[in-house]
Amino acid sequence: MISKLVANLGARLSVSRSLLALAAGLGLTGCCSPGQPGAPTILLDTCEGITNAFRGFHQPGFPSDKWTCADGVLRSVPGRRIDLITREKFEDFEFAVEWKLSPGANSGIFIGVTEATAETYWSGPEMQINDDVLNPDGRTPNTSAGALYDLIAPNAQKHLKPVGEYNQARVVSRGGHIEYWLNGAKIVEYDWASPAMSALIRGSKFKDAPYFMKDRRGYIGLQSEGNEVWFRHFSIRRL
């Protein structure tokens, strides 16, 4: 009997250690933002945490041949295109990350992504990431950096740092109201299911995409267009 109790206790301690190690690897913190008591923030500052939080679109695991990670910095491999999505779905949340690009590059942050489509952008609206100087998308306001891609241009508060420097991006989704923040300024906001948004979609490339913006509860995605883009200092908080 005593030997069985000791064995059971050892097994429980082993499980507890495994759970603590997983939490540490994912970068889970017990910190809560002001005004949201009990809402934990997930910080992803380690490569173990980042690769455990994301997987390839339509893939079960992290595509280490197309994205690399070193010292807590995620990088897309040039010429090897695949988007990443979170392993969990989110609906009301705040997502923040820092990004930088190589000259002429393009990327994006998606929300509300489903795997019912061939590409992330056919379901999830995109906060555009772009080199507005060298990439042609920078010539049109609603496809420039910070835009809700092809739908809403960023406002005059937009301040984009030079290529090679990190920009701070934040996406807030709360009760159907969405905000895009860039380098501390709110540059885009919209209401997910509003008549105004429906009208914008009807006049866009997404008008015939049956899954586009159909469900706020979905994956958060990071785009790879075959260019080189870096992401670091991820945080996700459910609201």
What's the short story on this structure?
By secondary structure, the protein is α+β, with helices and mostly antiparallel strands.
Structure description:
With 239 residues, the protein is α+β, with helices and mostly antiparallel strands. The protein has one domain (29-238): Jelly Rolls (Sandwich). Helix content is 17%, strand content 34%. The chain is built from three helices and 14 strands. Strands 1, 2, 4, 5, 7, 10, 11, 12 and 14 form a nine-stranded antiparallel sheet that branches. Strands 3-6-13-8-9 form a five-stranded antiparallel sheet. Strand 10 and strand 11 form a beta hairpin. The longest helix has 25 residues, at 2-26. The N and C termini lie far apart (48 Å).
List the helices and strands and how they pair.
Elements: H1 2-26, E1 28-32, E2 40-44, H2 47-53, E3 54-56, E4 67-70, E5 73-76, E6 84-86, E7 93-101, E8 106-113, E9 126-130, E10 167-174, E11 177-182, E12 185-191, H3 195-202, E13 219-222, E14 229-238
Antiparallel strand pairs: 1-2, 2-14, 3-6, 4-5, 5-14, 6-13, 7-10, 7-14, 8-9, 8-13, 10-11, 11-12
